[in-house]
Design a protein that fits this description.
The complex is a heterodimer of chains A (511) and B (422). With 511 residues, chain A is an alpha/beta fold. Chain A is built from 20 helices and 15 strands. In chain A, helix 15 links the parallel strand 12 and strand 13. In chain A, helix 1 crosses helix 6 and helix 7 packs across helix 16. The relative contact order of chain A is 0.09. Chain B is an alpha/beta fold. Chain B starts with 15 loop residues before the first strand and ends with a helix. The relative contact order of chain B is 0.13. The chains are: A alpha/beta (511), B alpha/beta (422). At the A-B interface, strand 1, helix 2, helix 3, helix 4 and helix 15 of A face helix 2, strand 3, helix 3, helix 4 and helix 5 of B. Strand 1 of chain A pairs antiparallel with strand 3 of chain B.
């Protein structure tokens, strides 16, 4: 048992729902107790879908436990077929049904339904949501895709997009357009918006573009082996990765890359002088493995940030993230416990966090700016406007999104200049939060009494003057200054921090 | 005060449409979300699966980031192997939790579908842990599993688990049962106190130390219609129920107060003096809010068991007609007074087969459909106006001062549909 409040991932059957809801013409019959329908609202509310997820729940109750539940399952299966007439059905059990001894796969097979029935084995007590999506899509592809003649023109399948995916809708549109510009057609994009009959013609593509390894890698591997379709390894997230992706795709297609960068503004924005202040900003990056890997590259190569720490919550990518951590010289944090993430962030005191919905709240608590780069996300990260993360437009979007929570150069300069001004002092609060006027800057006489550190202890004490001086440092770099000073003092064996210590430390760390 | 004209047109005798099938409802674990806010020194520990944790997270929204006093002990593969081990694991997690949160005085072990199916004996665990952690923490248990409870029934199961361990008393006291927002509870107590009724206790109390006694002289009034098991548990302790319509709207609140006033022998003049001003306020405010609702039809999908009293409010005080009133469970003993006040006509349904009910709803094309979040947007996309039901459980809607807010919750979607031209 493990005590949890927040979970980064849902159970695996939610992953299966993400595939089923993403697709059209597919129905999911889920052996589950009353209440598991809560997951419907993830799709109808967070993703704002205008239809019910294509899922039929058997809704067994306590009084049904015994032999009755098998009949419930068969009835639900038959009724779902009769009502929705899907092209294919997937069947499986939620965590509770996994414990009772019905066998959804066996039961559904004996029913002789006039459409393919694909059984799912999703171990709820050892795996999670992303595994559920990956495995479900893999089983669907395995059951339906067949080798066939290649299309006349070069075409690809785009793999991995699902319902409830972070920016999947726009990423797929962006990459489809990018491929079209290169003269490559999209045969099937799946699971998002594909039908089971689309899956049957996946074999016509020359190769596969794997956008989301978390939810499409098992299927991509199967296609490689059984349909002789190689798949792309570069995820086109960020300017450089998009360029690499174009090269990889063109190599696979046997064509000369012609890159149209006319709408790519990100590199100039990042080189322009106003971005100089971004140099060396210390960022902590957390999320799913793929988005963390790509964000790390963007942060280092394209934004000029210093990556202070990285981590991911999906164990499937632990090895990759650890290797990347070693490569860039930081400890990789592999955990699904948000308290550990919070502790790490507190210890690192980064100037910015790139993470999930959860890190946004950690950032809010610690007063550290944060931008969201990965699921799980809340409703505001399923925006109405076009906002891909991938491709060149994605790079533009990422630049804007990441720097928005930071204070830009000119503003930072002004804050320095006017830090004692009544409008810009500490307690004034951010100007873009309406509803409160700047608080008056009353400066009561200092009444703090210095308490000297006990002899021989390594307790750190900030003397009143030093503390005052620290407060003159703008709030968004103060955490870093405090941390550096304390580290410097500890290294020097100093237990009382004076104004001098503060400036010695500043000189020490100056670059 | 003596006007007891029976309303012969009521729905109490209407045959109930009972359905079984797929249910689009929450399980009882959801009750934790509002119960933990009310009971300030209680912690709710669900023993369940990742699904349970995910449900709580989805239901709690941003509350999850505010150090809430609930959590899930997620069962892992090794816990399923042998039961003895599961109890040791649970003890360890509880000890860890209680050492981290010394402010906790009551711990609820909340059963889930997985823990019920593997027959993990949480009652025994609660007894054992109570001994281990006495006298600081009392450990109780109840089931919030989907196989046994629907949504608000979780509160019922929780309160019912507390009743047997409440102290004995002979005092004649009024007990108000059901967790309401503090502001509403204060209003109710204030009105009753002005009539000279007292002492007044509440279940649940804000803190374990404030807990009430129960005995043969206790009389209790329910604030919520979904408290069937708690009602039964209180009667087993000898307490007596004051039947009344539930306090929604001006008429509902007045009828509820009147039933309590009668029990305590309050005279008509006093009752009038105390209620006249808030009644007038409520009537005026409802009239303003319910203009859009006059003559419109409403369809209730089952959700919280609040459906019957709300249908009574909307039909009698806002001029609506009810097409179907669906409820997960129909406790006729509790909502009978409300059923009496609903004019014959609507289908009263208990339970659900969601696809069949959706067919009925589409055929009826009601002006407002009250349903859960899983159905609301899909029905809006089909051109129906919806009001999502969960809000009715979290928002202060009981008693006089909230009557117009309650009407407003229903009139706002109607007004929005009229105002948008897209």
């Amino acid at each position: 048992m493990k005590l949890t409040v927040w979970t980064y991932e849902g159970p695996p059957h939610v992953g299966a729902m993400r595939v089923a809801t993403g697709m059209k013409g597919l129905h999911y019959v889920l052996h589950a107790p009353q209440g598991d329908t809560y997951a419907d609202l993830l799709f109808t509310m967070i993703e704002r879908r205008n239809h019910r997820p294509p899922v039929t729940y058997t809704t067994f109750q306590a009084r049904d436990l015994g032999s009755d539940t098998a009949h419930l399952f068969k009835d639900a299966c038959q009724e779902a077929y009769d009502r929705f007439k899907p092209e294919a059905i997937i069947v499986g059990a939620s965590c509770t049904a996994e414990l009772i001894q019905d066998d959804p796969a066996g039961l559904a097979e004996t029913m002789g339904l006039p459409c393919p029935v694909i059984p799912l084995e999703l171990p709820s007590y050892s795996r999670k949501e992303n595994f559920g999506a990956d495995e479900t899509f893999f089983q669907i592809v395995r059951a339906l895709a067949k080798p066939m003649d290649r299309s006349e023109r070069v075409s690809v399948n785009i793999l991995g997009g699902t319902a409830l995916g972070f920016r999947h809708r726009d990423d797929i549109q962006e990459i489809t357009a990018l491929l079209y510009d290169l003269g490559i057609e999209v045969n099937v994009a799946a699971p998002l918006d594909a039908t089971p009959s689309d899956i049957t013609r996946m074999g016509a593509a020359h190769f596969n573009v794997l956008l989301y390894p978390e939810t499409g890698e098992a299927a991509a591997r199967w296609c490689e082996k059984n349909l002789n379709q190689p798949y792309t390894k570069v995820i086109p997230l960020g300017t450089n990765a998009t360029r690499d992706f174009i090269k990889e795709v063109c190599d696979l297609a046997g064509i000369e890359p012609e890159i149209d960068e006319s709408r790519l503004r990100m590199p100039w924005w990042s080189r322009s002088v106003d971005s100089t202040y971004l140099t060396g900003k210390r960022v902590f990056i957390f999320g799913d493995g793929s988005h963390v890997k790509t964000a790390t590259r963007i942060a280092r190569e394209e934004m000029g940030f210093e990556v202070a720490g990285i981590g991911c919550y999906n164990r499937e990518f632990a090895r990759d993230i650890r290797a990347l951590g070693k490569e860039i010289g930081v400890e990789a944090l592999i955990t699904d416990d948000y308290l550990e993430v919070e502790q790490t962030i507190e210890a690192l005191q980064p100037e910015m966090i790139l993470g999930t919905q959860m890190e946004r709240h950690i950032g809010k608590r610690l007063g550290i700016p944060c931008a969201v780069i990965s699921a799980p996300v809340h409703v505001q990260d399923f925006p109405a406007r076009y906002s891909p993360q991938m491709g060149f437009e994605g790079a533009n979007v990422i630049f804007d999104t990441w720097i928005h929570p930071l204070v830009m150069g000119l503003e930072e300069h002004l804050l320095h200049m006017f830090r004692d001004d009544f409008e810009f002092h500490d307690a004034a609060g951010p100007s873009h939060h309406g509803g409160h006027a700047p608080k008056p800057m009353d400066r009561p006489e200092e009444t703090v009494v210095e308490t000297p550190a006990p002899e021989g202890s390594d307790v750190m004490v900030w003397l009143v003057d030093a503390e005052k001086e620290l407060k003159k440092i703008p709030f968004f770099v103060r955490g870093k200054a405090k941390r550096n000073t304390e580290k410097f003092a500890a290294d020097q064996g100093v237990t009382e921090i004076s104004v001098d210590t503060l400036y010695e430390a500043k000189a020490h760390y100056a670059r | 005060m003596n006007d007891h004209t029976p309303i012969t047109t009521g729905c109490r005798e209407t045959p109930v449409l009972k359905e079984r099938g797929q249910r689009e409802v929450f399980c009882g674990l959801t009750g934790i979300i509002w119960l933990h806010r009310k009971m300030q020194d209680a912690f709710f520990l669900v023993v369940g699966s990742r699904t349970c944790a995910h449900l709580l997270q989805s239901a709690a929204g941003v509350m999850i980031f505010a150090e809430p006093r609930f959590g899930t002990a997620i069962l892992e593969e090794k816990d399923l192997a042998g039961l003895a081990d599961a109890h040791t694991e649970l003890d360890r997690e509880v000890a860890k939790l209680l050492s981290r949160r010394p402010d906790i005085k009551q711990l609820f072990l909340v059963g889930s579908c997985p823990s019920e199916v593997i027959k993990l004996d949480l009652a025994r665990a609660a007894e054992r842990l109570t001994v281990d952690h006495a006298p600081h923490v009392r450990v109780l248990n109840y089931s919030g599993s989907g196989i046994e409870t629907t949504f608000t029934q979780g509160e019922d199961a929780c309160l019912a688990s507390m009743v047997p361990v409440l102290p004995e008393t002979d005092a004649r006291e009024l007990l108000l049962v059901g967790a309401l927002p503090d502001v509403v509870e204060d209003q109710a107590i204030d009105l009753l106190t002005q009539m000279g009724i007292g002492p007044i206790r509440t279940l649940p109390a804000a803190r374990a130390a404030d807990e009430v006694g129960i005995g043969g002289n206790t009389v209790f009034a329910l604030l919520q219609p979904f408290l069937g098991d708690t009602h039964a548990a209180l009667e087993r302790r000898g307490a007596r129920h004051i039947p009344a319509p539930f306090p929604f709207g001006e008429a509902g609140t007045t009828a509820w107060l009147r039933a309590v006033a009668l029990e305590f022998g309050v005279d008509e003049a006093t009752f009038e003096r105390v209620t006249a001003a808030p009644r007038a306020r409520a009537l005026k405010a409802i009239a303003a809010q319910s203009a859009e609702l006059q003559g419109k039809s409403v369809f209730f999908f089952p959700d919280s068991q609040l459906e019957v009293p709300l249908a009574r409010f909307l039909t009698r005080e806002c001029g609506m007609t009810a097409v179907e009133v669906g409820t997960p469970y129909l406790h006729t003993r509790l909502v009978g007074p409300d059923l009496d006040l609903i004019e014959q006509g609507p289908t009263i349904s208990e339970g659900q087969d969601v696809d069949l009910q959706l067919d009925r709803c589409r055929a009826a094309r009601p002006d407002i459909t009250v349903c859960g979040l899983g159905l609301a947007n899909p029905l809006e996309a089909e051109g129906l106006t919806t009001k999502w039901a969960i809000e009715l459980v979290f928002t202060p809607v009981h008693f006089y001062e909230q009557a117009s807010d309650l009407a407003g919750l229903f009139s706002r979607p109607v007004r929005r549909r009229e105002v948008l031209s897209l």
